[in-house]
Amino acid sequence: MPDKTFKAGDRVKWDHSQGATTGKVIKKVTAETHIKDHKVAASPQNPEYIVESAKIGARAAHKPSELKSA
Fold first, then answer.
1. pTM for the predicted model, two decimal places
2. Which backbone phi and psi does 43 adopt, to 5 degrees?
3. Residue 9 CA to chain centroid, in angstroms?
4. Taking 90 as the threshold, does the pLDDT of residue 36 lie above it?
5. pLDDT recorded at residue 3
6. Do residues 48 and 61 touch, judged by C-beta distance below 8 A?
7. Interatomic CA distance for residues 59 and 67, integer angstroms
8. What is residue 61's predicted lDDT score, i.e. its pLDDT?
9. Where are the domains of the chain?
């Protein structure tokens, strides 16, 4: 199965400890970065996506396998 790919602006949904949420992709990350105090260990071989929650506007990084098209 090929890796899921998304682009900036795509609507996505994901699960978290409080249930499921929806939002949009901000950007694809292929190098180490930080969101607040959290280190995102992304690389070209293991990219992650910065997503923004539609409900509260919070940003987080997720692996492609954790995201679904909304």
1. 0.89
2. -150, 170
3. 12
4. no
5. 66
6. yes
7. 14
8. 94
9. 11-69
How do strand 59-62 and strand 38-40 relate by DSSP bridges? unpaired
Write down the pLDDT at residue 1: 39
Contact 22, 54 (CB under 8 A): yes
Q: From the CB of residue 7, how many other CB atoms can be counted at a distance below 10 Å?
A: 9
What distance in Å separates the CA atoms of residue 21 and residue 1, rounded to the nearest whole number? Answer: 25
pLDDT tier for residue 53 given thresholds of 50, 70 and 90: very high
Element housing 62 (H / E): strand 59-62
How does DSSP assign 13-55, residue by residue?
EEEETTEEEEEEEEEEE-S-EEETTEEE---SSS-EEEEEETT
Q: Are 52 and 59 in contact (CB under 8 A)?
A: yes
Is the predicted pLDDT of residue 4 greater than 90, yes or no? no
**Residue in 15, 7, 3, 2 with CA at minimum distance from that of residue 53:** 15
